[in-house]
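Aim 2 progress update. The chain analyzed this quarter is reproduced below.
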Amino acid sequence: MSLAVPEQKRTWTTGTAPGIFPLLGHGIAFYRRPLAFLNSLPAHGDLVEIRLGPQRAWMVCHPELTHEVLMDPHTFDKGGPLYDRLGKLMGDGIVTCRQQTHRDKRRLLQPGFRPSHVAAYTDLVAQEAESVCDAWPTGRPVPVTEAMMTLTTRVISRVLLSDSLDDATTAEVRDCLTDVVRGLFVRTVVPIDALFRLPVPANRRYRRALSRLHTIIDAVIAERRRGADRDDVLGTLLAATRGDGVPAPITDQEVHDHLITLLLTGVETQALCLSSAFSLLARHPEAEGRLHAELDSVLGEGRRPGPEDLPHLVHTRCVVSETLRHSSPGWLFTRVTTRETELAGCRLPAGAAVLYSPHLLHHDPSSFPDPERFDPGRWLPGRPTAEQRRAMMPFSAGNRKCLGDEFAMVEATLALATIAGRVRLRHLPGYVERTPRPGITMGPRSLVMICEPRSRVPAAASPTSRATAAPRTSESRTAGEHVVDNA
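Predicted structure tokens:
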């Protein structure tokens, strides 16, 4: 007779969030104080019913329940208020497509973001980061968020389109993406279309930005068709329209949708991650000191980092991981049930909106003690627990995990190393941390800091060295699984 004790099934709790306004639901709370509203929900259960406008929705507040949702994409598919809105911008791209078409789209795009390709992008990222910080005047205020948006727009446009965008068009794309991302959020939490047809400045600004983005992408595609083939993502997509290397040719509209999708997901999330990192480092001098010591040890007199340096930038990567935990740009995502199902003992109808929040999961004290504390050391090799790895999901999980998660980590690590290796950014006198304005992403959208020269840390003082470098295998698989549920 077996003496094994049967595994006890966990009992989940469910509830409903208070403060529902007629017609608007919890939209006001979501818009005015989104993080405070999110943080209030676990007190009402592991699965909490909320209202997005008049629509019922359910917020998942526990990491194990979140994994249950993300690991079953056939039941909890991409959809809900966020992806319904994104679909109007991105079409049927890899972010917004339903599960049945996802595999073919991912297979088409994946080669451009494999580790071998990511290594080839390292010089591109470092070069663009160097260009941005070299333009900053020493001792003067610099627009950090704007500069990071410029940096990430240049990087992703070169990855996708080679040099098809000139500086003026790159700046226009950056500004259009900012307006679109801001407008998408309010359309998500208050999904009442009539409000967004009103001829008010915010609606006009959103529509203009959207129209201009589509026009720019169409012009790039048309110009490329008239020119030579290029070894970039657009080149791969255009080859696929001819049926080269794919089971069936894709349409011109699919090419457009993929480019819009990758631009939107590859620019602002990365820019906000980097901006948050510099802001957090300026407020935590010990973490900043460890970062500078590592950079001085690995890169010497501020040389440009290369692919061979990545395994040695251990603390630098930990700063990125902790920024993604503490201030994850991708903070709220939705799914939709494809059939009637049960979650946490609650029956959900087909078509139900299910939400999860990396911010909420990353700030759960049961997973991350003292969650408001910025501590890159949480992610040093061997430190994070299995529970913390599962709770840390800025790039989602399952087969819809972000296509470019490793590219995003490498880009952020190299950009941080390049800029922090040359200058030190300080907050303006009297700086007060403010709750970031909500969008489909979250972060400091107008951060201005003072650029100062940086003195070198003697090599002997460095807490990390090549002798203690992390293994060459991808740290993304060991440092919290990782700006973003976008694939």
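The radius of gyration is 22 Å. The longest helix spans residues 252-283. These observations will guide the mutagenesis experiments scheduled for the next reporting period.
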